[in-house]
Each structure stands twice: as C-alpha cells, then as structure tokens.
Amino acid sequence: MLFNSWEYGALLISTFFIYYLSKRETFQVRTLVFSSLIFYGFNNPWLLILLLFSALLNSLTSFKVAKSEMRSEALIWATGGVTLNLLILGFFKYTPLIADSISESWRQNDGVGHFLTQIPLPIGISFFTFQGISLLVDVYRERYSISKQLPISSLGKHSMKTLFFIVFFPQLIAGPIVKAHDFYFQIRPKFLKDINWAFVIHNLVMGYFLKIVIADNLKDQTFWISYPYFQTLSSIDLLAMLLGYSCQIFADFCGYSLIALGCAEMFGYRLIQNFNWPYISRSFSEFWNRWHISLSSFLKEYLYIPLGGNRKGPWRTYLNLFIVMFLGGLWHGAAWSYAIWGSAHGLLLALERLLSGRLTKLFDWIPAKILVCLQIILVFSAVSFIWLLFRLPNFSEVLLFCKAILNNFAIPPGKTRVLLNLIYCLPIFLLHIYQFFKLERNFRINPNLKFVAYVFMFYLILTNGGNQGEFIYFQF
Amino acid sequence: MAGIRVNSFISNFKPTFVLLAGFFVALGVTHSILISYFSRVPVTPQNQNQENFIKIETFVHDLKNCQIVLLGSSLMALLEETYFDDHVCNLAFGGLSSESGAAVVEKSQRDKKINKLVVELNVQKPVDTNMIEASYHSLSYFLGGVFPQLLTRNQPITMLLSLVRYLNPPAPKTVTQEQFDTMFKIHQLAASSLDSTSELEYRNHLLSLRHRLSKLKDTQVQVIWLPADPRLANANGNIRRLQIAKEIFDPSSWTWIDVHLESLETTDGIHMTQKSAEAFSTKLKSFL
C-alpha cells in the first residue's frame, strides 16, 4: 500500500479512530499490528509469511538471548539470530545477483540457476531485517548494561512487542530504520491529548509536498535518463536531468520519511529523523550525518564501531570506512552498480579524512564564506553525479551517459525540459538555503508566514501533483 | 509537557486558522480567475504522462464533443486534434498503445456515444491499468467538474508553461543527423526480426484488443497501419507484424484505412515530423 493512495488514507483514519477507543496498551498495540498487516499484505498477502517468520525468529532468539544464564549461551543465540537474519536477506536479495553473475549456460536451463534468478524481492526486507538485527544486538548488549530499555518478561508479551516493532506500518517498508533501544521504551498506553499536532501537520504537509509535487513531477522529467533516450539529448538537458534526479531522490525519500514520522506521531510514537537537509553539507562525512540518518547511524553503531571504527590507526579507519560504505551500497540493491556507488562514497570519505588537514592549509587564503559555498557546491555536485549509479544500475549505461554529457554540447537543449527541472528543483534549493541561514545566522521566519507556506504547499498538493509513482526506496 | 505543547499550539493556531482558510480560498479564487482568463491558451503538457492524463480528462469530462476517437501509441499521438474537425478526439497515448485507449472508451461507454474509432495497430503494449485507475479515482475525476482548479490541464505549473509556450511559440521540432541515427539504429534492431516470444506477445495483445473492440456496441471501428521509413517498414520484423495484424483483424471483416503519403519525413524512422503528421492527418480526414 502506498502512502499516497486512497486506501492508505482510509486505513490511517480508521486505525486512528479505533486506536484511541481504548487506553489499554494491549488493545492499542494489537490494533496497530492488525493495520500494519493489512498495510503490508494489501497487494500480495503471501508476503506476510516472511514478515511473520522474521518477527517470530527475532522474538524467539532475542528472548533466548535475554534469558540465557551464561554469556556464551547468549552469544550463541545472538549470533545465530543475526546470521539467520542475514541469510534471509541474502537469499531473497542477493541470490539473483549471484546467480546472474554465474555463467549464462547455468541460468538458461529451467533448473536451479534459473529458479535462483527469479526469486522475488519481498518489499521492505532490508528494513525489517535490519530492525531484527538491531533488536538482537541491543538485547545482548543490555544484559551487561545498567540501563534497561528493553525489559523482557514473558515470551508472549515480548513476542507481541517484537511483532509490533517489526511491522509498525509507518516505518515498515522504507524506514526510517528504528533501533530497538529507541522504540521499545515508547510502547505504553497512548492518549489523544498527547499528540503533537504541529509536528504531525508539519511532517505530513511537507512530506506529501515533497513526494507528490516535487518527486512525482521530477520523475517524469528525469525519465529520459533511461537508456537509450539520453543519447539523443543535449549536454545541458543531461545536466539538468542529473540535477533533477538529485532533487527527486531527496524529495522522494525525505518525503516518505516525513510522512512516516507524521503518521507514527499520530499514534504516539516518535521515530528518528531520517534527513537533515543533506545538500548543505560541506563534507562527505557531514553528508552522511544528514542523509538517511537511520541507516548511517545503524551502520556506524552495528558495523563501523565493532570493526574498530577510528581506534586502530588511520589506515584501518580508511579501510573500515570503505567496508561500511561498500556494504551500505550493497544493502541498497542487488546490483554491482550499488556496490560501486557505496565504494565511491567510501573512497571519498577515506580521501577526505586523509587530505582534510592538508586541504585546509592549501585553501586557507580563500575567504571563509566563499570557501563554504565552494565546499557545498563540490559535495553536492559529486553526490549528484554518483546518484547516476542509482538511476542506471547497468554500469555500461553510466559510462555512455558520461560520454553523452561530454559529446552532446552541439545538440540544442530542450528548453521546456530544462525549465521544468529547474522549477521543480527550486523549492528544494530554497528549503536548503533557508536551513543553511537558520544554522549560520540563526535566521527565523515569522511563524504565521510558516503557516502560509504550509497552506500554499497544501494547495499545490491538491492541484499540482505529478503522476502517482512508487517511492524509489521501495525497491530496496 | 506534551499537553502544554498541544495547548499552546492549538491556542496559537485558532486565531490564524480563519486567516489560513481565507488564504486557501483566495488561492483557489485567484487560480479560478487565471483559468478563465487563459482559457484560450493552448495547453502544453509538462510531460508525456501528463499529456495522457489530460487526454483522458478531456474525454471523461466532456470538455470536447468526441464523436470520432483515434486510438494508438506515440505514433498516432502525433496527429494533433487541431488538424481535424472539432468532433475528433485523439486518445492515443505516448508510451502505451491502442488497448489503453480502448479501455478508457469501454469505461465511458455508458455515458458517451462514439460513432467511430480509428485504431492504430503498429505498436501493441499491455493496458496501463494504473494510469486508468488513477484517472478514475482522482480528485479531478470526482470534483473536476465543479472545481476546475483540480483538473490536470489547469495545474499551476502547466498553466505557466502553456503561457510561456504561447508567448514564445517553439520552432517545429528538428533533429540532428546524429540524433536521428542513434534512434534509427535502435528501431532498426527492433524491426529487423520478430522472435517467437515477441511474436506471441504481439499476437496476444492484438487478440486482447480485438476482444475489447468487439464488445463496443454501436461504434464503427476502422483500423490503420501507420507508415514508417521504408527501411524500417520493409524490415522482416515489421512485415511479420503487419501479417499478424491482418490475420487477426481480417480485412474481410474489419475496415482497414489505407493512407498513402508521398514524402514521409520522420524524426527517428517511425515518428512523423510535424509537417508529415499534418499532411497525413489531412489525408486521413477524408476517410473519417
């Protein structure tokens, strides 16, 4: 079910009214679980089997981790649980890629090879599997910690809470990836009077504006990035579309995350903010602190730090950064271009760390304000260019696109296409510039003016929506 | 703490609510005035998808009296309605094919009397049910008749674009030789042969289209094969497609329109230039 569908609107409203009929935690949790299962299984109920299996696996193994008397036993359960989660993810997400990479003759037969390339990707599997891993690691860590945010009493109660944690519909399909220690303590009776409506309205209006008005309209402009069409377009068109795609992917994913936050708040749950205006980043490390925050913090907490982080010398730090970003890239999709995308970011992060001191000295003659602008432009351009690997998962097409940018300057640009890309990118730039000045100069807009802006955005949601499209991150 | 926040928000919000509602209404009224003021400006869609939506909307909301309807793909979509008489509507969709148009006609069959359908057979693709469902479940479908602000053709950015194009009419689309060659090679590859899977797909789509067209009562159906660059038209794959089309839409039972164009010009081997499309439409008019 899509956030921008009528069915979702009906489900959200009916769940909201039923949810607050009772002040009992059990009733409220069950209501949300029931709605979440409808949400997930609406188009394909068979998908529920894997989702429920994942919830069962994680509740049983995490319960065992919590109740094991010996540390070694707990470690075995935790490791086993994490391994099973990774195996499930690997089987559904990466088997087709591996099978595709193996010889063609093996695939052509109607045997195992062919079967493996045809395995469907259950929607949201990357997100709910990571949440399961987070639960296991957090429960294991908490055994040796003073703070107890994951109280586990009986298996029945724990299973229901785990099921709820895994399937809670606002974050189920495309995040934000919620960590167990950020969520379980929030499970308690909720009251209508506690809803922060300002937060809800802000997130829903901004989220739907970004998705329906910006991302859905840009989607039809950037469609022509597809092979072979881009070969016939001018370099200016290609650059405008690259800019458009950069804004589209931000608007699409940030929009989704904001809607998720707004919807979760309606039920009294506060999810992690997933985006913090990433295109004003002055460095690649800052970019990753602002883009898909729930994933980068997950990778930092559960992969980068356990690998040694920056505690084992500079070269090990560079290697760790590269490994984390390479795996982060592969997490996005089962295609080598995603791995290249992640590796490119890993390399940039490592290079930045290696050269930052020297570069600061080298450019200290440039006035600070200009330097900041140059840094922002540089990071934005590099990030936008690397997004191409998301849009064209076939690497040879990426190379053709680059070639077309260099060769097609003689072709006259399509003015309408360039104009529309710029028009729909404009709100994204204005929002980022506003955030920049808010941070730098403590600039604030009159609250009433803010409400006027929300009304304007709401009006555009009603009157200027693009052709309804799936969220880009659904495929991950 | 949360309670205080909510109360302060609501108390802050209440006095401004009326102003905000007023602002919303003012936006709507201004938009409405602009719509009527610019009603004579021809609509320039922002993209192919929107063009398709606008066509459905125009058809569904009776914005035009459609007695003869053209169905097809992007090849047929090039035949602009302005080249024909007022009662001709073009429901040919870029990126799709005749069957999607036939599905729209089928859905509106109860409310509309269509005398004739002209159906292109060159390109066949599955029906875009998402697009059709979205068109029939949108705010514009339910409320567009009362609030024209909700119609796709009246989107603020579409209006702005239409105005810009109206004030600065673009020159007819031209392509460089390099652009032509790039796309021509791709079409040539597709036209060179028809493998068994593609043949089966093409045949099935045609059968499905025929089934859909057969259900339309009191509507005369004429089918048409649009011309292409001779190098593509005479390629094995295209010859085979035409054979299959004639097999399924047997000329002894279905009316085929045969329009000959002396000098056909295309932008990529299959899509007619504006000049050719206009000339072709003029000839086609005599068959309608």
Q: What shape does the CA trace of chain A take?
A: globular
% residues in beta strands of chain A: under 5%
Q: How large is the radius of gyration of chain B?
A: 23 Å
Give the strand order, joined by hyphens, for the main sheet of chain B: 2-1-3-4-5
Structure annotation, total helices of chain B = 12
Major protein interface = A-B, 37 and 46 residues
Strand content of chain B: 5-15%
* Helix count, DSSP H or I runs of 4 or more residues of chain A: 21
Number of strands of chain B: 5
User: What gap, in angstroms, lies between the N and C termini of chain B?
Assistant: 73 Å
Helix content of chain B: 40-55%
* Element order of chain A: H for helix, E for strand: HHHHHHHHHHHHHHHHHHHHH
Q: Which regions of chain A contain 5 or more consecutive residues with pLDDT less than 50?
A: none
Rounded mean pLDDT of chain A is 86
The averaged pLDDT of chain B comes out at 85
The general outline of chain B is globular
The largest sheet of chain A is: none
SS class of chain A: mainly alpha
Low-confidence stretches of chain B: none
Number of E-state strands of chain A: 0
What does this structure look like?
The complex is a heterodimer of chains A (476) and B (288). Chain A is an all-alpha fold. Chain A has 21 helices and no strands. Chain B is an alpha/beta fold and 288 residues long. In chain B, strands 2-1-3-4-5 form a five-stranded parallel sheet. In chain B, strand 1, helix 3 and strand 2 form a beta-alpha-beta unit. In chain B, helix 4 packs parallel to helix 9 and helix 9 packs parallel to helix 11. The termini of chain B are far apart. The interface between A and B is large, with 37 and 46 residues.
Layout of helices and strands, plus pairs?
The complex is a heterodimer of chains A (about 475) and B (about 290).
Chain A: H1 6-19, H2 25-41, H3 47-67, H4 71-101, H5 104-108, H6 112-117, H7 125-142, H8 155-167, H9 169-172, H10 180-183, H11 197-222, H12 235-266, H13 284-290, H14 293-304, H15 314-332, H16 336-362, H17 368-386, H18 388-391, H19 395-407, H20 415-441, H21 447-463
Helix pairs in contact in A: 1-2, 2-8, 3-4, 3-7, 3-8, 4-7, 7-8, 11-12, 11-20, 11-21, 12-19, 12-20, 14-15, 15-16
Chain B: H1 2-37, H2 48-60, E1 68-72, H3 74-77, E2 88-92, H4 98-107, E3 116-120, H5 129-136, H6 139-143, H7 156-167, H8 177-192, H9 196-214, E4 220-224, H10 230-233, H11 236-248, E5 255-257, H12 274-285
Parallel strand pairs in B: 1-2, 1-3, 3-4, 4-5
